[in-house]
UniProtKB/TrEMBL annotation:
Top-rank taxon, per record: Eukaryota
InterPro entries assigned: Glutathione-S-Trfase_C_sf (IPR036282), GST_UstS-like_C (IPR054416)
Gene3D superfamilies in UniProt: 1.20.1050.10
Pfam families in UniProt: GST_C_7
Sequence ranges assigned to domain Glutathione S-transferase UstS-like C-terminal in this UniProt record: 39-123
Organism encoding this protein: Aureobasidium vineae
Regions that span the bilayer: none
Protein name: Glutathione S-transferase UstS-like C-terminal domain-containing protein
Taxonomic lineage from the root: Eukaryota, Fungi, Dikarya, Ascomycota, Pezizomycotina
Length: 134
């Protein structure tokens, strides 16, 4: 729950970069109760403040990943469901953040999120139905 709360609180950074159709944008508009998709714009000083907050709020999660130094996962060398949840958020960030922001996120807190994304990304491009060993 804490992972989703941190990412959800900062998703405003990603919304404008999501590859949504017009219908998809309208779903966001309706659920948020705003007039248009433009309401999700986050630029300038406001964006910088949200980025600083995001980095700060990810500190605790980064510490969880640093506990076991044997690998990039929460459990060290063994992947868990928790890694997949964080990895999904990171994949969304990779797709929707501005490139310099994504590169910054990858390096935050000693690069734990960049390493996790990279190791999970190898498996995102496998054939369906093929068993993958993590």
């Amino acid at each position: 729950m804490s992972v989703d709360a941190v990412f959800t609180a900062h998703v405003i950074l990603m919304v404008q970069g999501m590859p949504l159709t017009t219908a998809g944008e309208q779903v966001f508009v309706k659920r948020a109760g705003v007039d248009s998709f433009v309401a999700f714009a986050c630029e300038g000083e406001k964006r910088q403040q949200v980025l600083v907050s995001f980095e700060s709020k990810l500190e605790g999660l980064a510490q969880v990943f640093k506990r076991d130094e044997s690998g990039p996962f929460v459990l060290g060398a063994k992947a868990s469901y928790a890694d997949l949840i964080v990895g999904a958020w990171l994949r969304m960030a990779n797709t929707s953040l501005k490139s310099p922001e994504w590169e910054a996120l990858r390096g935050w807190h000693g690069g734990v999120f960049g390493r996790l994304h990279d190791v999970l990304d190898r498996y995102a491009h496998t054939d369906r139905g093929r068993e993958v060993q993590l």
